Amino acid sequence: MNNQGVSRPNPAPGVTEETGGERSETPVSGGAEGAGFGPRPIEPPIVIADPEVPEKARRRRFSAKYKLRILDEADRCTEHGHLGELLRREGLYSSHLTCWRKQRQEGSIQGLTPRKRGRKAQPKNPLTKRVSELERENEILRKRIENAELIIDVQKKVSQILGVTLETPENSENDS
């Protein structure tokens, strides 16, 4: 069979063409090394995927900065296939873009930032510090008054024992 006028596509790498009446065999045919085929080529090691499934999948969270960057890149994709390439490269779905575009259109910057779950922290009242200071001061003054009243009681008892009459503040006001 003579195929001189027929053009054939280039063979794949590692495949040899037939020439003349000779037949070329690839070393994969399983022949012995002494049969003229030469040593077998070194094959890359076979990588077996780990069949272990993680206990719990972690939910992906995207920052507002990342979302805006991806939306900007997606808006610049004009040629056919570029948007799909972007999505595959980033591991995203088209629904991500749809949701993020809606959030951007609404102008909800808060929608683009991840929300913290749980109870909201109570805002701190700026007067709480002042109130606690005043309560401490009030307690100190209360103790001083108790001590002063105790001293006055002792003075009254001593004056009664000695028979000395003390002027009361009401008497001193009347004398003036």
Chart the SSEs and their pairings.
Layout: H1 64-76, H2 82-90, H3 94-106, H4 109-112, H5 128-162, H6 169-175
Written description of the protein model:
This protein is mainly alpha-helical. It has six helices and no strands. Among the domains are: 64-112, no CATH class; 131-166. It has helices at 64-76, 82-90, 94-106, 109-112, 128-162, 169-175. α1 crosses α3 (94-106). Residues 15-20 have low confidence and may be disordered.
Q: Can you give keywords for this protein?
A:
single chain; about 180 residues; mainly alpha; 6 helices; about 45% helix; elongated
The overall strand count is: 0
Describe the oligomeric state of these chains in a short phrase: single chain
The secondary structure category is: mainly alpha
Q: What is the terminal separation in angstroms?
A: 147 Å
- Beta-sheet strand percentage? under 5%
Helix tally equals 6
Query: Secondary-structure element order, as H and E?
Result: HHHHHH
Q: What gyration radius follows from the Cα positions, in whole Å?
A: 47 Å
Largest sheet: none
Query: What is the arithmetic mean of pLDDT?
Result: 77
**Proportion of residues in helical segments:** 40-55%
Low-confidence stretches: 15-20
Q: Estimate the global geometry from the Cα principal axes.
A: elongated
